[in-house]
Amino acid sequence: MTLSARLFASGLLLFAATIAFGVAVTARRFHDFDIAVSHALNMQPGVSPDWLILVMQGISWIGGGIQRYVIVGSLALALWRWSGRGAALAMAVATLASAMTSDILKNFFARVRPDLVPQLDLMSSPAFPSSHATNAAVVYLLFIMLVPQARHHAWQLATAAMILLTGLSRILLNVHWPTDVIGGWMLGTSFALMAAAVISFRREQRQNKDPTVQKF
């Protein structure tokens, strides 16, 4: 099996696992886990350090709204310069497709957001999966996969930090259950893998015609 086929199959399996996980979550199979982790992590004004609340709100702000698309656009332009138009297009399409899918799944599962303590980033949409976590996973994972120059420890650590901190901020700010974030990470990763599979397939096709083409 080629690399592109393995990547695409892994993405599809992970997408299916996300749906199955969502069914289990809405059936309250992880209720005790969500309650325990939320109680341990939720922040409250006057109890939690003000600086930590501000930092988490800042990280969360970066991962949502129009600013997330500014980041995606910047990374897509960088990919266009370093890896070609196909990589930039993959970034844009995967981001938009995962965002649309996240919205569809939110409405399908219609999970209520946490109410253990007051939200520190008021939200009214359904909870599962977390759009912030989805976006962070697809954008940063795909970026690191498509930029050969970024395959070193510093970039990998930065990527992991942004994905983890974005998801963690949503729990700390009391707007998502832990399983919402896990589901978002799963969904975003599935789209990153499938997008990377498309790019890998194109490179395999070119390599079959020209063996000097660099492998993915």
Commentary on this structure:
With 216 residues, the protein is an all-alpha fold. It has one domain (3-209). 74% of the residues lie in helices and 0% in strands. 38% of the residues are buried.
SSE topology:
Elements: H1 3-26, H2 31-41, H3 50-62, H4 65-83, H5 85-109, H6 131-146, H7 153-172, H8 178-209
Helix pairs in contact: 1-8, 3-7, 4-5, 4-6, 5-6, 5-8, 6-7, 6-8, 7-8
Strand percent estimate? under 5%
The count of helical stretches stands at 8
Give the N-terminus to C-terminus distance in angstroms.
Answer: 15 Å
Instruction: Give the CA-based shape.
Output: globular
Q: Could you name the ranges where pLDDT drops below 50 across 5 or more consecutive residues?
A: none
Which whole number gives the mean pLDDT? 91
Helical content (DSSP H or I, runs of 4+):
over 70%
Largest sheet: none
SS-derived structural category: mainly alpha
Order of helices and strands: HHHHHHHH
Radius of gyration: 18 Å
Number of domains: 1
- The counted number of beta strands is 0
What's the short story on this structure?
This protein is mainly alpha-helical and about 220 residues long. About 75% of the residues lie in helices and about 0% in strands.
